[in-house]
Write a structure and sequence with these properties.
Elements (H helix, E strand, L loop, with lengths): L3 H4 L2 H4 L2 H7 L8 H15 L1 H10 L18 H23 L5 E3 L3 H9 L5 H20 L2 H8 L2 H22 L3 E3 L7 E3 L8 H18 L5 H20 L5 E2 L2 E2 L31 H6 L1 H29 L12 H17 L5 E3 L3 H6 L5 H16 L1 H4 L4 H4 L1 H11 L10 H17 L2 H18 L8 H14 L1 H8 L2
Helix pairs in contact: 4-17, 5-6, 6-15, 6-17, 8-14, 8-15, 10-14, 10-20, 10-21, 10-22, 11-12, 11-20, 21-22, 22-23
Length: 493
Amino acid sequence: MPNATTTADPQTTGSSTIDRYFKISERGSTISREVRGGIVTFFTMAYIVVLNPLILGFAKDVDGQFLGGGSAPNLPAIAAGTALVAGLLTILMGVVSNFPLALATGLGLNAFVAFAIASQMTWADAMGLVVLEGAIILLLVLTGFRTAVFHAVPKQLKVAISVGIGLFIALIGFVDAGFVRRTASGTVPVQLGVDGFLGGWPTLVFVVGLITIIVLWVRKVRGAILIAIVTTTVLAIVIEAIAKIGPMVNGDKVNPTGWGLIVPKLPEKIIDSPDLATVGQFSLLGSFQSVGVVSAALLIFTLMLADFFDTMGTMTAIGHEADLLDEDGLPPNTDRILIVDSLAAAAGGAAGVSSNTSYIESASGVGEGARTGLASVVTGVLFLASMVFAPLVQVIPSEAAVPALVLVGFLMMQQVKEIDWDDVEIAIPAFLTIVLMPFTYSITAGIGAGFVAYVLIKVVRGKSSAVHPLMWLVAGLFVLYFAIDPIKDVLGV
């Protein structure tokens, strides 16, 4: 009987070393699918290279200095540092963990660093806190604690985490496309488009992209997601060239029907040299002198808990979608995944671009067929290339990329049938986990609410002994997390 290598897809036969290392054929994939998946993941994540500088770049530290030093924002340096760390750590994730998971600066965490931490200390001190947080999480991984927590979580609650993340990333897609927006009146939190109606060419691009991706997907066209992104990007470039729409925000001017982050147009130049001024700009223990031991410890705790459970939810959801979870609901090489993720947190601080973490947008690459770490290597290489090819990265508008997130949200939502909705002991925690992720725009908040509710219901039904000791501990930590501001008030910090 021929061996697996000789009967593999022709695209992997000539690259048997790569095939064996990444277990491409073993996981039912091909090199071309992995490459496509890696490219799609990059397209759906590339916005962070533009968005992270906008979040970090305009915030000032306690001395009135901007990140990277100086009295003016240094956006190119933050963009280059963002791409550098994302590229290196995503490649490391692929090579070491062989899992289709990409990493970059964590949204939400970067805003917390910019506006809640840097305002109390220097940028170097703030990034030192991020490095310490990453080091502590790494220690928890190496001691086995982080993996033990994963094992302690009931399987159906893990499913609920995946479903909640599916709804969350679908909402991200709709919001980033301007299809769903905050209301100006405040009578309701969100609404359809502008004033309840769809308007503007960018939203049309999103709708066309969503229709295209759905049609190609149901027709089972190979490369459906990538084809949809490329074609809608071309459409967006043509529309911008004719209509001259411009950005949604340009200085003090606001155009509600403009492009969200990136104005799609052919760049004047293709290559630009990277500025790495933020790299190495951190002070490991400076924060303790700036705000005191108690305040610094509480800030580290807040960062750590968000990082800890965001990654748990993300890797579980990606593993489920890729059909890579074992009988305990854990992906292969869990420890390696967590080690790389922990290193990413510290690396982001060391590079001065905030904590890096695993991105749920990786699910778009899985939706395209990615099953191995080769897809992550491709994504990482593209991030590194974006350091010098930044003008090309700024061609693809979010409106063309985020339809992929909506489709993947649907795919992840299908897992909801695995939850026993007749068992209130799991159904209520699962429900809170699922709905609070999109409603609070936070994976951590959804997981925390589900864990606390699970323990509470077990207690009131007289089943305290059935709760794993680590679930007790984690639920208690989440109570502290949710009450962090009142605790600070009591402590006077």
